[in-house]
Design a protein that fits this description.
CATH topology of the largest domain: Rossmann fold
Helix content: 40-55%
Number of domains: 2
Structural class: mainly alpha
CATH architecture of the largest domain: 3-Layer(aba) Sandwich
Largest sheet: 3 strands, parallel
Bound molecules: tryptophanyl-5'AMP
Order of helices and strands: EHEHHEHHHHHEHEHHHHH
Radius of gyration: 21 Å
Length: 334
């Protein structure tokens, strides 16, 4: 790796298979960034404990996610891929950052409030300090850019605040990282019923996974929410219709997108035809990724090797940062 390349970090929780939101919000950017930056990408297995206490499937889920990430474009020779739990330096930094994070701001975090609603029986402290652990993931490599989807924007903003507070109090150790996307805005892929973002473990029929087979992809798309179509020319699209157009824009040709835009604007759209076209193009997009991932999954030893090598490189960077952090804090008794 060249010495002066800027540093990129991002992660994903092993709480389900990769879906279109993960691909277009994150992985697509990761695959491009690995050619331009020094990149660290990891599986956030500690984070998954905040919502999924059962760890019995964690190892196989982590392996299959790594396979999917590689099938979707990551190259372990160009970027560092590792599991969060292999980097014991992260929790030490998490501890220091926790002293700089205030209860009030953590309680106001949108993802925390969502989880309080979703799992009122398990509002654990890890859930409250989730953004602090995420900040430690990012700052442990002194990252400059964090390629994420729109839903993570607030967490990155909090990371920036924690980094600034640390630098202000103890000395300039951390670059203040930025959320990143090659597109103009951070991406948000909607669930197929238009009722919020597509997500890994909720509403599986409204989520398209990169390991869905062709029949299931078609079934999900044909069931996606639509309506009678607009009655006024050039109407604003309802969110659930906009969501389908967004997907069309991502996997279909420009001409096809334009045709259905025209039909919509002239009140002659036939959603059945549009969904059939979308299903066809989606299958063409997903199939090679699904097949590559399946081939990689048949060789778990190879995946484990990638994780071991990744952990070694990530620990090198993490150890160097932690040494600076300890120096800055004045913890050097040994
Ligand atoms: P996670 O596992 O929920 O999602 C992984 C990545 O996929 C993006 N994403 C989406 N983008 C657009 N539309 C969607 N519907 C959609 N759903 C998911 C997410 O924005 C994310 O980029 N907290 C993180 C994991 C994490 C992390 C980190 C990320 C832990 N530490 C440090 C970056 C840096 C999460 O839960 O992502």
């Amino acid at each position: 790796m060249e010495k002066n390349k800027e540093i990129v970090l991002s992660g994903i929780r092993p709480t389900g298979f990769l879906h279109l939101g993960n691909y277009f919000g994150a992985l697509k950017n990761w695959a491009r960034m690995q050619n331009e930056y020094e990149c660290y990408f990891f599986i956030a297995d500690w984070h998954s404990l905040t919502t999924h206490a059962d760890t019995s499937g964690l190892k196989s889920m982590t392996r299959s996610l790594v396979s999917e990430l590689i099938a979707g474009g990551l190259d372990p020779d160009k970027c560092t891929i590792y599991a969060q739990s292999d980097i014991p330096e992260i929790p030490e930094l998490y501890l220091y950052l926790n002293m700089l994070a205030y209860k009030g701001e953590l309680e106001k975090t949108v993802t925390f409030k969502d989880k309080v609603r979703q799992q009122p029986e398990n509002i654990n402290a890890g859930l409250l300090t989730y953004p602090v652990l995420q900040a430690a993931d990012i700052l442990i490599h002194r990252a400059h850019y964090v390629p994420v989807g729109k839903d993570q924007e607030q967490h990155i903003e909090m990371t920036r605040n924690f980094a600034e507070r640390f630098n202000h109090r103890y000395g300039e150790i951390f670059p203040v990282p930025k959320a990143f996307s090659y597109s103009e805005d951070l991406v948000k892929i909607l669930s197929l019923d238009g009722s919020g973002k597509m997500s890994k473990s909720e509403q599986q029929m409204n989520t398209i996974y990169l390991n869905d087979d062709d029949v299931l992809i078609t079934k999900k798309i044909m069931k996606a929410k639509t309506d009678q179509g607009p009655v006024l020319a050039n109407s604003k699209k309802p969110e659930y219709i906009q969501g389908l157009f967004t997907l069309l824009g991502l996997v279909s040709s420009h001409e096809i997108l334009k045709k259905f835009e025209y039909d919509f604007n002239h009140c002659q759209i036939r959603y059945g035809d549009m969904k059939k076209q979308l299903a066809e193009d989606m299958i063409r997009f997903i199939k090679p990724i699904r097949e590559r991932a399946a081939a990689l999954q048949s060789d778990p030893v190879q995946i484990d090797k990638i994780l071991t090598k990744g952990a070694e490189k990530a620990r090198k960077s993490a150890t160097a940062t932690l040494l600076e952090v300890r120096k800055a804090l004045g913890f050097r008794y040994l």
